[in-house]
Amino acid sequence: MKKRLVSLLLMGAMAVSLLAGCSNSGGSGDSGDSGESGEEQVTLRWMQFQVEYAEQVKNMAKAYEEEHPNVKIEVEVIGDDYYDILKTKASSGDMPDVFMTAGYNEINTYKEYITDLSDQEFVNNIADSAKECVSLDGKVVGLPVQMSGNGIVYNKKIFDQYKLEIPTTVSELENVCKVLKDNGITPFTNQFKDDWLLGQFFNYAFANNENTTEYIENLKAGSTKIADTQQMKDIMNVLDLMLEYGQDKPLDAS
C-alpha cells in the first residue's frame, strides 16, 4: 500500500510551523521494487514556498537521501502563486507528499491530508506557545520550525528632528502625519502589491483583542461581527490614514 507523507508549514502572527502527517488513501509518493539494500524504493515530492531557504531545503533532502538510499526526495520551491498552485493540486488529486501552508485555522483547508502526530518524540520539544499553531481537534499535527513577528518601523531621526512623540492613538497618528506632510515628508510607505502584506497588517487588530482565540471563535459562530469590533474599526481608520498620507500607487509597491 502506498503511503503519503504530508508536511505543511503553519504561519501565524508570531510563529511559522511545519505540519506533518500521513495518509493511507493513496498519494503521490511512489514505491517501487526493492533496491540493493532490500528496502522498498520510495519517491517523495516536497513543495514549499520559502525561496530564501531553497538551498538549505535541498541540502536537507540530499542529506536524508544519503542516510536512506531507498528514498528519493524531489524538492519544488515556488515563491509566487504558491497557494493557488497548491489548491489546484489538491482539487486535481495531485497533492505533493510534503507541502507548506498558512497555519491555525488554515489547517482545516487541508484536513484530509494530515494525521495525528501526538505520539512522536519531537512533540515534547515544542514550546507551549507554538503548540497551538500546530494543533487540530486537540491533536498535535505539526512541528514548528521558525518564529517570526510583526512590527512597525519608524524613522527615529525624523521624529527627533520634528520633536514628534510615538503615537498611541489614531488621532495622535493623524497629527504626526500632518506634521510630516507639512514638512514635505511622506508619512507612510505602503506596500500592497502582494496581498499577504495587507493581510498581515490586519493581524494587529486581532492581536489587540484581549483573547484572540475567543474572538476568532466568536466570529466563526456569528456572535461577534468584525464591523462591531473597536479594534477592527481602529485598524481601518489607520488604513485610511495610510492611504491618505502614503505614497502614490501603493498597489504597485512590494
Can you tag this structure with a few keywords?
254 residues, alpha/beta, disordered N terminus, single chain, 4-stranded mixed beta sheet, D-Maltodextrin-Binding Protein, domain 2, 2 domains, 3-stranded antiparallel beta sheet
Could you explain how this protein is built, in words?
The chain is elongated and about 75 Å long. The protein folds into two domains: 4-147, D-Maltodextrin-Binding Protein, domain 2 (3-Layer(aba) Sandwich); 156-252, no CATH class. It has helices spanning 54-67, 82-91, 128-131, 156-161, 170-182, 195-201, 203-207, 212-221, 230-245, and strands at 4-11, 15-23, 30-34, 40-48, 71-77, 98-99, 135-136, 139-140, 142-147. The protein starts with a strand and ends in a 9-residue tail after the last helix. The protein contains nine helices and nine strands. Mean pLDDT is 79; it is low at 1-28. The strands form three sheets. Strands 3, 4, 5 and 6 form a four-stranded mixed β-sheet that branches. A three-stranded antiparallel β-sheet has the order 1-2-9, with no helix packed on it. Helix 5 (170-182) packs parallel to helix 9. The chain has 254 residues and is of the alpha/beta class.
**The CATH architecture of the largest domain:** 3-Layer(aba) Sandwich
Q: Per DSSP, what share of the residues sits in E-state strands of 2 or more residues?
A: 15-25%
CATH evolutionary superfamily of the largest domain: Periplasmic binding protein-like II
CATH fold node name of the largest domain: D-Maltodextrin-Binding Protein, domain 2
Rg, alpha carbons: 23 Å
Order of helices and strands: EEEEHEHEHEEEHHHHHH
- What is the CATH first-level class name of the largest domain? Alpha Beta
